[in-house]
Every structure is written in C-alpha cells, then in structure tokens.
Amino acid sequence: MRRACVIPFVKPSRAGSSFGVTKVDYKADATERQADLAAAVHEAARHDWRVLVEEGIKAREIECAVLAPRHGDKPRTSWPGEIVLDEAREQRSTISTASMDSSALPCGGPR
Predict the structure, then answer these.
(1) Is-above-0.70 flag for pTM?
(2) Which end of the chain is more exposed for a tag (fewer CB within 10 A), N or C?
(3) Three-state secondary-structure class, residue 49
C-alpha cells in the first residue's frame, strides 16, 4: 500500500545535499501540492537525471563529508557535524552555512 509523504524532500541523486534540494511544504490544495512537487523534481533534474524523493522526518541530522580531491586520492572524511535548523525561518542549510559558518560545531554524542 502506498502512502503520501508528509513533507517530502526532492534532491538530485548524486549531488550531495547542497545543490538542487527542495523541501516541498504541505498545502491543502492537491493541485498546488502537485505543482510544487513537479517544480522540485524539475529543479533536482537540472543537477542529475536521477532524482530522489525522500520523506522528511523529525530527527537529528548528522552529516559527514567524504573527500577525495583528485581521482586516485585516498578518500578522507570530515568530522561529523549536526545540522540545526532555525525553526522560525524553516531554512535548510547549504554547503556554505554548514561548512563555513563560524557557529558550526562538530556534533556532540547521542541525546
């Protein structure tokens, strides 16, 4: 049985979480929801022909980058960091805020 995603995120499959990611907010009108979802898929498809639609959940978001600057380099990992959203603004972080903001700190242990 299929069920509708409550708050889906639409993103390119192979572009990380920084490019072409859209949070599709819930709207009571089905036509508006479909239009928003179609626009989000179109935006993600600009970055990759393979698109993911994921259900949003209320949980901690921990990120860890895997870096290999040049082909053949041994991959390295960054320290894990927690993405903390400003609920009042409901904004999703971007690579610039997640990586370069002086307030970004490595994540603590489990809560």
Answers:
(1) no
(2) N
(3) coil
The residues, any chain, with a CB within 8 Å of residue 14's CB and separated by 6 or more, are: 48, 50
Residue 37 contacts residue 9 (beta carbons within 8 Å)? no
pLDDT digit string (tens) for 80-107? 988 776 665 554 444 444 444 445 555 5
23: which strand partners?
A: 9
Residues 41 and 59: their CA atoms lie apart, in Å, by 24
Mean pLDDT score of the chain: 76
Strand partners, 10: 22, 53
Residue 76: strand, helix, or coil: strand
